[in-house]
C-alpha cells in the first residue's frame, strides 16, 4: 500500500472530544496527514491547546465549543464545514458504579454522552456526506469494555456496546453511497479519563494492565490515533462495519 493512501490533503475532518486524550491525538495526526480539522469539545482551554499543536504541525484547525449532547449545536457546527470527508466521534465520559448501586441519572448521563453524542455526530455527518454525494468515513469510538465484563462498568460498557451496534447498522445503510462506518475499541490507554486515581493506585493499575498485554505495555493516545487515521484514509477503502481493537492483545475475540 502506497504511503499516499494515508494522505488527507484537501479533505476535511470533524473530531469530537478533541480537547485531550485520544481526541487530541487523532485531531493532530489527521492534520499532519493533510486534513483541515474541525475540533469540538466543551473544554475551551483544551481546544486551544489542540489548535496550537495542529498549527505547530503546519495544519489548519477550526474550533467549536459545544456539548455533543446538544443536537442543534452539533448540527450547526457540522453544517459549517464546506465539505466533510471524515467524522471522528470520540467524545466520551467514564462512570463507575456497581450494578446494584447504579442510579437512573448515572445511566442517563453516560448514555447521553457516549451513545447519543456519537449518534448525533454520525447522523449529521452521514446526512452531509449523502447530501453532497462526496462519500466519506465515519469513525466512532467504542471500547475494549464491549468484549469483557468488569466490576463497575455497566454504564460505560453498555454505552459503548450501543456504539458498536450503531456502527454496524449505519454501515449497512450508507455503504451504497460510498460512506464507510467503522469503530475503534481501544484497550487501556493512558489518558485523562483513565487517570482517575492517586499516583500509587494509577501505577498499580497500569502495571496490571501491562502484564495482561502480550506486548507488555499500556497504550498511548497516539496508538489509537493511528487507527483512526487508517480508517479515515483510502488505505481502508474496503473496510466498513468493522470494530478494530488496538488493545495490545488483551482480548482476541474470534
- Named at the architecture level, the CATH assignment is 3-Layer(aba) Sandwich
> How much is the average pLDDT?
92
Which CATH class is shown?
A: Alpha Beta
Q: What is the succession of H and E elements? A: EHEHEHEHEHEHHE
Number of strands: 7
Strand percentage, roughly?
5-15%
Main sheet properties = 7 strands, parallel
CATH topology grouping? Rossmann fold
Radius of gyration based on Cα positions: 17 Å
**Widest sheet: strand ordering:** 3-2-1-4-5-6-7
Count helical runs.
7
What is the rounded distance between the termini? Answer: 26 Å
Pfam families: adh_short_C2 (PF13561)
Keywords: Oxidoreductase
Enzyme class: oxidoreductase
InterPro entries: NAD(P)-bd_dom_sf (IPR036291), Sc_DH/Rdtase_CS (IPR020904), SDR_fam (IPR002347)
Brief description of this entry?
The protein has helices at 21-32, 44-56, 71-79, 104-132, 154-174, 199-212, 221-232, and strands spanning 12-16, 36-41, 60-65, 86-89, 136-141, 179-184, 243-244. The protein is of the alpha/beta class and 254 residues long. It has a single domain (7-193, 222-244), classed as Rossmann fold (3-Layer(aba) Sandwich), CATH 3.40.50.720.
Keyphrases for this structure?
254 residues; alpha/beta; Rossmann fold; seven-stranded parallel sheet; 7 strands; globular; NAD(P)-bd_dom_sf; oxidoreductase; EC 1.1.1.-; SDR family NAD(P)-dependent oxidoreductase
Structure in words:
- InterPro entries: NAD(P)-bd_dom_sf, Sc_DH/Rdtase_CS, SDR_fam.
- The structure is a single chain.
- With 254 residues, this protein is an alpha/beta fold.
- It has one domain: NAD(P)-binding Rossmann-like Domain (Rossmann fold, 3-Layer(aba) Sandwich), CATH 3.40.50.
- The chain contains 7 helices and 7 strands, in the order E-H-E-H-E-H-E-H-E-H-E-H-H-E.
- A 7-stranded parallel beta sheet has the order 3-2-1-4-5-6-7, sandwiched between helices.
- The two termini are 26 Å apart.
- 44% of the residues are buried.
